[in-house]
Design goal:
The complex is a heterodimer.
Chain A (H helix, E strand, L loop, with lengths): L4 E3 L2 E5 L4 E6 L4 E9 L6 E6 L5 E4 L2 E5 L5 E6 L8 E9 L7 E2 L3 E6 L1
Parallel strand pairs in A: 2-11
Antiparallel strand pairs in A: 1-3, 3-8, 4-5, 4-9, 6-7, 7-8, 9-10, 9-11
Chain B lengths: L3 E4 L2 E4 L5 E7 L6 E7 L5 E8 L5 E2 L8 E7 L2 E6 L8 E8 L8 E3 L3 E5 L1
Parallel strand pairs in B: 2-11
Antiparallel strand pairs in B: 1-3, 3-8, 4-5, 4-9, 5-6, 7-8, 9-10, 9-11
The chains are: A mainly beta, B mainly beta.
């Protein structure tokens, strides 16, 4: 079952606003990955994080690997209509072999 | 780089027939690929890990005789849904880990929408 708690489950914002979502776990993770999924498509990798405390940006997206290795957040600045979609956090648990564990997803809706 | 292609993107089949879905890594070799199933408005559920040249590893509760996985080459894994029934209708997605990305970043195919009628 799911071992990552992702929140919020959904967000309704105005275009231009900043967005923040996060994932937490009771387990330690070795990597954190953030994906975006559009309807009817597979997830697309946005940002990959490898070290505790790591802060990485990809354009208007910024993600951080929590110091405790049990959490991560993703921020989107100055949202635009094409940011609409479902965002998933995922990670490789310590001792979890090759499996990726996924969060429940955050559905982002933007009002123009 | 790190492109994963899945085919077909959607398929409709009759109940009782079998359907094969292909997953290809186009610009890298993948010794391991993963197959997921996704229900509407839900997250991805790992079904099995596909290992090149050996048997797939199935997650608990996934019927290996129903979801046949073959990983015959370093660039191709196939998932065959045998004797499909309407409850098998779902969105199936494959992924592969790219060795040149530290073997940790997973790249996904476009997904296959299976509808069993």
């Amino acid at each position: 079952g799911q071992q990552l708690n992702q929140s919020p489950q959904s967000m309704f914002i105005q275009e231009g606003e900043d967005v923040s979502m996060n994932c937490t776990s009771s387990s330690i993770f070795n990597t954190w990955l953030w994906y975006k999924q559009d309807p009817g498509e597979g997830p697309v990798l946005l940002i990959a994080l490898y070290k505790a405390g790591e802060l990485t940006s990809n354009g208007r997206l910024t993600a951080q690997f929590g110091i405790t290795r049990k959490d991560s957040f993703l921020n989107i600045s100055a949202s635009i209509p094409s940011d609409v979609g479902i965002y998933f956090c995922a990670g490789h648990m310590k001792g979890g072999a090759q499996k990726l564990v996924f969060g429940q997803g955050t559905r982002l809706t933007i009002n123009p | 780089g790190a492109v994963v292609s899945q085919h077909p993107s959607r398929v409709i089949c009759k109940s009782g027939t079998s359907v094969k879905i292909e997953c290809r890594s186009l610009d890298f070799q993948a010794t391991t690929m993963f197959w997921y199933r996704q229900f509407p408005k839900q997250s991805l559920m790992l079904m099995a890990t596909s290992n090149e040249g050996s048997k797939a590893t199935y997650e608990q509760g996934v019927e290996k005789d129903k979801f046949l996985i073959n990983h015959a080459s370093l660039t191709l894994s196939t998932l065959t849904v045998t004797s499909a029934h309407p409850e098998d209708s779902s969105f199936y997605i494959c992924s592969a880990r790219a060795p040149d990305r530290g073997d940790t970043e997973a790249f996904f195919g476009q997904g296959t929408r299976l509808t069993v009628v």
